[in-house]
Amino acid sequence: MVKAGCKYVQVDEPLFARQVADAKSCGFEMLQHYFHGVPKEVCKIVHICCSYPNFLDEEDYKKADPDNYHQLAREMDQLNFDQISIEDAHCANNLKLLKLFEKKTIIFGTIAIARSRLESMEAVTGQIKVALEHIDRDRLVIAPDFGLGFLSEELAAAKLDKMCRAAAQC
Q1: Considering the entire predicted model, what is its pTM?
Q2: Do 150 and 113 meet the contact criterion of CB atoms below 8 Å apart?
Q3: First-residue to last-residue Cα distance in the chain
Q4: Which residues make beta-bridge pairs with 141?
Q5: What digits encode the pLDDT tens for the residues 104-133?
Q6: DSSP string over 9-49
Q7: Which is nearest to 16 in space by CA: 71, 78, 93, 94?
Q8: What is the CATH number of domain 8-52+60-169?
């Protein structure tokens, strides 16, 4: 992997946040198996998806219960991977969640990827500042929630620019 230039491996997990019992009974073991043998110098990442709409600006689709991240956190913190990606712009988590991760770096979703509205600078910087009340800066990576496929190229660029400028202010 490393010789081929691979420095990161990410698993996108769509069901853990919806089926916590299944995640705990067999999903965690599957993750361990997936990452088995991946060299230590390769960063191993898991994205826990809380849901995805069918189209841009869809509001009434079923989202995972934000409390489910809390139910998964402590055990996931002990698993053999380095970073966990969580959606916050979409879910508006209770950010005490971040304290439950003592070992993992958190990739923290600050940009809504399925809304055509451009976030305000104040909203994004505020979200980051609250997160920093619960986790060390060196374990927080600022990112969009997940994927930008619904957005036009211009809107995606504007959202990413806002996210980067907000992160630089924090």
Answers
A1: 0.91
A2: yes
A3: 34
A4: 107
A5: 999 999 999 889 999 999 999 999 999 999
A6: EEEEESSTTT-HHHIIIIIHHHHHHHHTT--TTSEEEEEE-
A7: 71
A8: 3.20.20.210
